[in-house]
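Tokens in:
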């Protein structure tokens, strides 16, 4: 049986996607300003991320200690929440759509290794989190996973496969637990994104 040869590790066609200067500027300045609790204003953090190439929508809320590997590979929709301690490890693109909640300590992992190769080659694959979904605290999403619209990944769960829309998942590996349904809003309140969509799992 062959031995693992980490000294011959290969990254294949992967590149960081930015110049060395841009990477250093992000690591030593931009990353600090986005993570620090000394700068509690989401608008400023959004502006910094946009300056480094991220596509960020309106009304995005960013809590302290949000860590983003490469902002130039990040897309975030409107009115999305990025919770404290979130780690977006985006060696590959990460797309987070509108009205998504990523809770405390969530980890988005886009990188993996080919364990069948002695050189332990790097493998990367994007993550796509569709609108109206909720990723609960300490949950993990693996490379290549799509979180369906309106889906929930429960506390501490691990999604290594894509999740169906409007379904609640839990466990490691995450398993479908039950459908997710939304109650109707009170009169006079604007309907939520989910309620504007004709879906059989939405009640009321």
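Residues out:
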């Amino acid at each position: 049986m062959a031995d693992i040869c980490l000294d011959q590790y290969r990254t294949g066609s992967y590149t960081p996607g930015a110049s060395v200067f841009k990477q250093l500027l992000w690591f030593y300045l931009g990353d600090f300003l986005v993570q620090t609790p000394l700068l509690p204003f989401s608008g400023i953090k959004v502006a910094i991320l946009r300056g480094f190439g991220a596509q960020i929508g309106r009304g995005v809320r960013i809590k302290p200690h949000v860590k983003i590997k490469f902002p130039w590979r990040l897309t975030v929709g409107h009115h999305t929440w990025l919770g404290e301690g979130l780690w977006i490890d985006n060696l590959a693109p990460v797309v987070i759509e509108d009205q998504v909640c990523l809770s405390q300590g969530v980890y988005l992992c886009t990188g993996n290794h080919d364990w069948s190769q002695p050189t332990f080659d790097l493998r990367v694959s994007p993550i796509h989190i569709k609108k109206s979904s909720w990723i609960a605290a300490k949950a993990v999403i693996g490379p290549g996973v799509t979180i369906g619209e309106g889906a929930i990944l429960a506390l501490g769960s691990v999604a290594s496969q894509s999740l169906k829309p409007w379904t609640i998942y839990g466990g490691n590996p995450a398993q479908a637990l039950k459908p997710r349904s939304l109650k109707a809003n009170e009169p006079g309140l604007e309907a939520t994104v989910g309620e504007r969509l004709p879906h059989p799992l939405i009640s009321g």
